[in-house]
Amino acid sequence: MGDEFPRSIEEALNRKERPRPAPASDQPGFYVDIRDKPAFLLAAMRLLAGGAHVSFEGDLSGCDFSLILESSSQETRTLLRNTAFPRKDFLILPLEPQTIDVVMKSVPPADLVRKVHHIQIEKGGRLELGVYDQFHPDTSWVGEAFSAELLDSLRAKTILRSWERAPSRGESMSDDFVNYVGHPDMHDGTIDSVERSGDRALVTVTGGSGRRLQLQFSGVREVVDHRSIGMRLYGLVEMITKEPWRRFVFANWDETDDARLEIMCDGFSYERPAD
């Protein structure tokens, strides 16, 4: 399997890749077609720096992050790996005003364009930038921190070719979106069973590849289940809610179907299928 990236949902499923995050419908964000990749990333980091983090995923062998303290290769609730197989290098860096220049110098421009596959920036626990598939325009998205005026300015400077407001992905995305969670094989999977015992719930899903996944929810406060068995999934979405609770929505692939499953709990884990 080469380093080229899929241009269709079917190809993405074969590669076990996570679909791009869909913005919340009340704050949909924008899709961007980026011309000058280094200049766009610099502008984005200057806008979002302060209490933020940036993640890079791909071939990072040519990058030198040795001068940046507090880097991590561990996923967080907001910044996740986006390619399950083949596994890529993955690193999260603090994004503060004083670290911007160091981060930019750590990634050679040629590597940024050709070898870094996915870039994400979160600020305050909310995903504000997702640039995937080597800056492909179909999978590059920014949040509401990027105003239309700013995007027009970047287009006037030829940093962007174009931008457009992103549509919502149906009623299930009506609250504040955090991120897609769980194994990427859930994309195009189906729900097999939903079991609840005390304050625990177990959801079994047959993934898009045919492998079975078990999702475990602990400290369950509420389960909203309406005809969910057999529901085809776009993915598992975590929504912002009041602490200490976490809200998970199983996004229905068919937006015209009223089947739904939502779980409010304080803990989540899943059993990874064997490769």
Description:
The protein has 275 residues and is α+β, with helices and mostly antiparallel strands. It is built from five helices and 16 strands. The strands form three sheets. A seven-stranded antiparallel sheet has the order 3-2-4-5-6-1-7. The chain has a five-stranded antiparallel sheet with strand order 8-13-14-15-12, with no helix packed on it.
Number of domains: 2
Order of helices and strands: HEHEEHHEEEHEEEEEEEEEE
Report the average pLDDT across residues.
83
Q: Which radius of gyration do the C-alpha atoms yield?
A: 19 Å
In one word, what is the shape? globular
Instruction: Please indicate the percent range of residues in DSSP E strands (runs of 2 or more).
Output: 35-45%
The secondary-structure class comes to alpha+beta
Instruction: Give the fraction of residues assigned to helices.
Output: 10-25%
Largest sheet: 7 strands, antiparallel
Major sheet: arrangement of strands: 3-2-4-5-6-1-7
Short recap of the structure:
The chain has helices at about 10-15, 35-50, 100-105, 110-115, 150-155; strands at about 30-35, 50-60, 90-95, 115-125, 125-130, 140, 160-165, 175-180, 190-195, 200-205, 210-220, 220-225, 235-240, 245-250, 260-265, 265-270. Helix content is about 15%, strand content about 35%. The model is unreliable at about 1-25 and about 170-175 (pLDDT under 50).
Note the topology.
Layout: H1 9-15, E1 30-34, H2 37-48, E2 52-58, E3 89-95, H3 100-106, H4 109-114, E4 116-123, E5 126-131, E6 140-142, H5 148-156, E7 160-165, E8 177-181, E9 190-197, E10 200-206, E11 212-218, E12 222-226, E13 233-239, E14 246-252, E15 260-265, E16 267-271
Antiparallel strand pairs: 1-6, 1-7, 2-3, 2-4, 4-5, 5-6, 8-13, 9-10, 10-11, 11-16, 12-15, 13-14, 14-15
